[in-house]
């Protein structure tokens, strides 16, 4: 298990940018694939992006492709989500998660979760 703490959320106008960070505890961070999910009120948690253990492979939801970038720094035990050209429909709680699988994309494939950070995009 790895403990995860997200930060970087906030209120931003449409078209703006935010960078989320997720700090992980433990010495095995580099062995995990890391993902970002989001959940809006009344909706199910949905996949946003995932990065493999080395950072060499990534995958994005169609809704964020070309606007969001996931990256990681294994020396700092941190994964990032750079969000550009934000839209009101990006408003949600954003959660990072860790998985032992190669490049998972569903909630059930992630075993460790952070507490989330809120992103609100105003129109």
Key features?
mainly beta, four-stranded antiparallel β-sheet, 0% helix
Could you characterize the architecture of this molecule?
The chain is mainly beta and 123 residues long. 0% of the residues lie in helices and 48% in strands. The chain contains no helices and 11 strands. Strand 7 and strand 8 (78-83) form a beta hairpin. The termini are far apart.
Distance between the termini: 39 Å
Q: Unreliable segments (pLDDT under 50, ≥5 consecutive)? A: none
Q: What Rg do the Cα atoms give?
A: 13 Å
The biggest sheet amounts to:
7 strands, mixed
Which structural class is indicated by helix and strand composition? Answer: mainly beta
Question: What's the number of helices?
Answer: 0
Tally of extended strands? 11
Task: Categorize the overall geometry.
Answer: globular
Give the % helix.
under 10%
Series of H and E elements: EEEEEEEEEEE
Tell me which oligomeric state these chains represent.
single chain
Strand portion? over 45%
**Average residue-wise pLDDT:** 97
Write the layout of secondary structure elements.
Blueprint: E1 4-7, E2 10-13, E3 18-24, E4 33-39, E5 46-51, E6 58-60, E7 68-73, E8 78-83, E9 92-99, E10 112-113, E11 117-122
Parallel strand pairs: 2-11
Antiparallel strand pairs: 1-3, 3-8, 4-5, 4-9, 5-6, 7-8, 9-10, 9-11
